[in-house]
Amino acid sequence: MRKNVKKKIVALFSAAALIASFCTGCGSKKENASGEEINVFVWTEYVSQEAIDAFEKESGITVNVSTFSSNEDMLSKLKSESEGTYDIVLPSDYMVEQMISQGMLEELKKDELTNLGNIGEAYLNQNYDPGNVYTVPYQGGVAAIAVNTSLVDIDITGYDDLFKPELKGKIVSLDDYRAVIGMTARSMGYSMNETDKEKLAEIEEKLLKLKENVALYDSDSPKSALISGDAAVGFVWSAEIALAMEENPNIKIVYPREGAYVFLDNWGIPKGSKHYEAAMKFIDFMLGKDAAKMNIEEFPYLTANEAALSAMGEDYCNNIAKNPPSEAIEAGEFVSNLDTDTLAIYDEMWTKLKK
Amino acid sequence: MEKAHSKHNWKSNTLPALVTVGPLTLILVLLVAIPLIYVVVMSFCSIDQYYNVEFKFTLDNYKRLISPDYMKIYGQSLLIALVTTLLCILIGYPFAYIIARTKSKKKRLLYMLVIIPFWTNSLIRIYGWRTFLGNNGWLNSILQTLHITNEPITFLYKQGTTVLGMVYCLLPFMIFPLYTALEKLDGSLLEASSDLGAKPLVTLREIIIPLTSGGIFSGSIMVFIPCLGYFFVSDILGGGNSDVIGNLIERQFQSGNNWPLGAALSIILIAVTLILVRIYKKMGGDMESLGV
């Protein structure tokens, strides 16, 4: 009998402890909801922690950062999470268009964006979001060519040269099918957004020649292979090349003569965000000159923020990897949305390349 | 009276069953059955122009599975898994034998040697290999300092590198079942064999291997199956040049954004697993030693 009572007391206490632990669980959640907090979903290696810290300090809003490494990853994560999970996203040009047409973005109250004037005219009012109703530009760049001159003795001036047999097993390439197939198309004088089946067959034939040359596919940090010398040539983002050049002076940047793959990433607020006002504050802060400066100092992409660029000094502006020349941008092409049938062909081509 | 009886019945039969089996059933239904059904249903769905899943029946996903390009990756994946399994047996068997036959405190030490690497995340360990094997990595530096080679050797981003990473990650899964089997092996059988004049190799072939075949089978299953799915190993060490089935699935759920096709690919992986487990059972394998 006594033993039974003891058992019951123990059971009672453990039950009480369990309930208490549940309560603290609820409690902490409530606390989070009252203290302002936003969930930011951005490209990896793209937004400076320093700028985020500065925002937290100024606004008192806590920022939780999650990252993605391709637009499609971001989209599928956004769709699989419940609405309101994220308050800020950073999609590229064509993805903005896709998200708008699926009603996945909130309209921005532009009069609240006091720093919008810092953004250069050339970056505003793009085809994918006319009038910048849903998004404002952040940074962009070019998928350029990195050449380690101590490891390569052929002349590389364009995408077409990446297919030369001399580069067998020497290339690090973006792990991104639209980029790689688009690059192949550009090297033949076609569009990155080719839909014509015959042309796609030609592109495929050429694409498969790249197989021999690519040592590895890496989108997250292709500069590592360039710096370590594991790859002599890179088909990677311009800023990655800029960072690699700082570590290894033999690396040079080449803007392809055919006109490059260019992109522009944009701040937006996903539909159903529970912290719209805080998210607007975040975007406005990031449009500010100081935050934009911190961002390009750490990740030297092409900034849409002209105020920040002019504050960066001559060295930065004259570095063609950090500040791509406007001719390179103008000659370039954006990726655009394609129909599912064409994308299925692209996907098959990519599978063939990687098998 | 009858009421009391039924109450008694409920308390003595149903309630204990509900308390003991109930939670497990619930977990199995929630975490195994429902997701599995979801995957099967998803694999017959189609997608709309924005790659959203549409609940419209189609066989297209399965039709795409039999394309020659995918076939080649399945083949490559099976080959990588096969070679990895064989290497794991070759390396794991002597090691497990030594642990099983060691009597002293050293046994625990040897066992710990297998377990300790598990305390570090496998992703980090695989990145470690990448740094170690790079053109300017440790191995090449050592080889060049010792003047064994003059030029750096490219170790990375080949099928062999992927196999190395797989063996490294999965070796413990081979060693544990082998160890269990070898531990159970009666030492007097080996003595009898040698008393009757069998040479060590004959003893190995006629006594040890047949008696530990259960361990070899379960180890092989536990290495072979994950090998088909460990996409991060082929991503990091293979540089995307030696994809396994796992890479195909990952690509459809991430950058390809085609969930139904990804689901259909997952079905293949599940089917391969089921077939292998079936063969294993047919050959007299013990489900318990798989940890099932």
Written account of the structure:
The complex is a heterodimer of chains A (355) and B (292). Chain A is of the alpha/beta class. Chain A has 2 domains: 167 residues, D-Maltodextrin-Binding Protein, domain 2 (3-Layer(aba) Sandwich); 144 residues, D-Maltodextrin-Binding Protein, domain 2 (3-Layer(aba) Sandwich). Chain A is built from 15 helices and 10 strands. In chain A, the strands form 2 sheets. In chain A, strands 4, 5, 6, 7, 8, 9 and 10 form a 7-stranded mixed beta sheet that branches. In chain A, strands 2-1-3 form a 3-stranded parallel beta sheet. In chain A, β1, α2 and β2 form a beta-alpha-beta unit. In chain A, α2 packs antiparallel against α11, α5 packs across α6 and α6 runs parallel beside α15. The longest helix of chain A is centred in the first third of the chain and has 33 residues. The termini of chain A are far apart. The relative contact order of chain A is 0.17. Chain B is mainly α and 292 residues long. Chain B has a single domain, classed as MetI-like (MetI-like fold). Helix content of chain B is 74%, strand content 1%. Chain B has 13 helices and 2 strands. Chain B has a two-stranded antiparallel ribbon with strand order 1-2. In chain B, a hairpin with a 5-residue loop joins β1 and β2. The longest helix of chain B is centred in the N-terminal third of the chain and has 42 residues. At the A-B interface, α3, β6 and α15 of A face α3 and α12 of B.
Short précis:
The complex is a heterodimer of chains A (355) and B (292). Chain A has 355 residues and is of the alpha/beta class.
Kindly report the CATH topology of the largest domain in chain A. D-Maltodextrin-Binding Protein, domain 2
**Can you write the helix and strand succession of chain B as a string?**
HEEHHHHHHHHHHHH
Oligomer: heterodimer
What count of domains describes the coordinates of chain B?
1
CATH class of chain B: Mainly Alpha
CATH top-level class of the largest domain in chain A:
Alpha Beta
SS elements, strand count of chain A: 10
Task: Supply the helix-strand structural class of chain A.
Answer: alpha/beta
Number of helices of chain A: 15
**Judging by the overall fold, what is the CATH architecture of the largest domain in chain A?**
3-Layer(aba) Sandwich
Task: Please give the alpha-carbon distance between the first and last residues of chain A.
Answer: 71 Å
How many strand elements of chain B? 2
Mean pLDDT of chain A: 89
Tell me the CATH architecture of chain B.
Orthogonal Bundle
CATH domain topology of chain B? MetI-like fold
Integer count of domains of chain A: 2
Radius of gyration of chain B: 25 Å
Based on Cα principal axes, name the global outline of chain A.
globular
